[in-house]
Amino acid sequence: MLHDAEPAAGSAPQSLNTRDMRRVLGSSLIGSVIEYYDFILYATAASLIFDKVFFSNLSPAVALFASFGTLAVGYIARPLGGIVFGHYGDRIGRKKMLVLSMLMMGGATVAIGLLPATAQIGIAAPIILVSLRFIQGISVGGEWGGATLMALEHAPASKRGFAAAFANAGGPAGGLLATFVVSGVSAATGSQFLEWGWRIPFLLSAVLILIGMIVRLKVAESPVFQELEAMAEERREKQKTPLSQVLRLHPRVVVVTLVASLGFYAMQGILTTWGVSVAVAEGVDRSAVLNIKGVAAVVTIVVCFAAARLSDRFGRRAVLTVGGIAGVLWAFPALQLMHNGTAWGFALAVIVGNGVIQGILAGPIGAYISEQFPAPVRYTGASLAYQGASTLGAGFTPMIATALVLAGGGGYALVGAFWIAVLAIGLVAVRMSREGAELRQKRPA
C-alpha cells in the first residue's frame, strides 16, 4: 500500500562516519540545543524569576502556580506545532520546517528578554508573556520531529537509534547551556538579577540562532523525503492530508507511543522544574541548584547516547523497559532527597533521576516513536505522539505536583504515587508496541 511505502535501504549510507552524516548529525544536535536552550530557559525562569517579575501582585504560592501556568502554555502549544510543522514537513520537506522553527523560537525568546515587567505595564505583561510562550511551544513542537527525522532518515537502518539520539540529546544539552548561562549571569549580577540580569540569557538567543541558521542551511534534505518527492504526483492524487492519514490509519500507534513517552516527561517536570522550586524553598542555594541541574544534564547526554547504542543492539523496547522500571523504583527516594534541604540530597535525586534514568529513556525514544510510522506521514505522526506526551507529561506536571502537595497537606506522598502511576502506564504501552525492526521487515522496500 502506498501509505506504507518506505524508500529503499540502499539510499542511506552504511556508516555514520562520513562527511555528510557528520554534518547531518551535527546540525540535528546543534539545532536542537539552541531550540531547547530557549525553551528550557523559560522553564528555569518560571521556577525562579517570573513569579516575582510578572506575578508580583499575588501571594508567593499563587504566584508560583501562575508562573507554572504560563510554562504549561508552551507545552499545550507543542502538539499544535507538531501537527502544523508535521503537515508541511511531510508535504514540502523536513529542512524547510527546521529553518522556520528556529526563526520563530529565536524571535519569541528575544522578545521575552525585552518584555517590561507587570510593575511597568500592568496586566499586559503577563498576557504578552503567555503569547510569546505559545509561540515557543509551536516552534519546539515542530523542531523535534524534523531534527529527529533528518538524522534518522539519513542513517543506515542498523544505526538509526544512535543517529536519532542526536536530536534528543539537544534537550539536556540545551538545558545544560541554559542552566549554566543563568547561573553565571545570576552570580555576575547579584542583587540586580531579578531587576534586569535575568534578561541577558534571553537576549543571548539572538547570537545562538544566527549560529544555528548557518549550520542548518548547509544540510541536505532527508533522502527519504527526496525519494517520496519523486512519487509526489501519485501521492497527491491518492493521499489525503498527513494528519487525516495518521488519525485514520494509525490511531492506536499515536496513543501507544504517546503514553509510552509520558513517564519520560513527567520525571522531567518533577525533577527539573518543580524540584528546583522545592529545593530553593527548602534552603538550598539557588546557584548550587542550577549547577547541579547542569551536572545532571551532562550525565543525561552521556547516558542518552549509550542507551541509544544499546537500543540498536537489543531493541528499543528493552531499553525503555529498563528505564521505566528504574524510574518507578526511584520515585520516593528522589522525593525524599529533594525535600531534605541539602545540596547533596538534591544532587543525588536529580543526577540519578534526570541524569541516569531519563537518559536511558531519552536514548531510544526518538527512533522508537519515529519507526512506528510510515515515511509519508512520519513527521506528523511522530510529532503528534511525542509533543502530546510533552504537554501531558512535562507541561502540567509542575502544576499537578504543586496541587498534590497542597492537597496532601504539605507532604509529597501523592506526588510519588502520581510519578509511579504515570511510569507504570508507560511501561504497559511500551510492551504493547512492536519493535522498529519488526515494522521495517513488514514494509515493502
- The overall number of domains is 1
- State the helix count: 21
Shape: globular
Beta-strand portion reads under 5%
Total beta strand runs: 0
Query: SSE string, helix = H, strand = E?
Result: HHHHHHHHHHHHHHHHHHHHH
Fraction of residues in H or I helices = over 70%
* Backbone CA Rg: 21 Å
CATH architecture level-2 label: Up-down Bundle
Let me know the average pLDDT.
85
User: What is the CATH C level class, in words?
Assistant: Mainly Alpha
CATH superfamily grouping = MFS general substrate transporter like domains
The biggest beta sheet is recorded as: none
Give the low-pLDDT segments.
1-5, 7-11
CATH topology category name: Growth Hormone, Chain: A
Membrane topology: Multi-pass membrane protein
Subcellular location: Cell membrane
Domain Major facilitator superfamily (MFS) profile: 24-434
GO cellular component, one term: plasma membrane
What structural keywords apply?
single chain; 445 residues; mainly alpha; Growth Hormone, Chain: A; disordered N terminus; MFS_dom; transport; membrane
List the helices and strands and how they pair.
Elements: H1 19-48, H2 50-53, H3 60-91, H4 94-114, H5 118-121, H6 124-154, H7 160-189, H8 193-197, H9 199-203, H10 205-216, H11 223-230, H12 232-238, H13 242-249, H14 251-281, H15 286-314, H16 316-338, H17 343-370, H18 378-395, H19 397-407, H20 413-432, H21 436-442
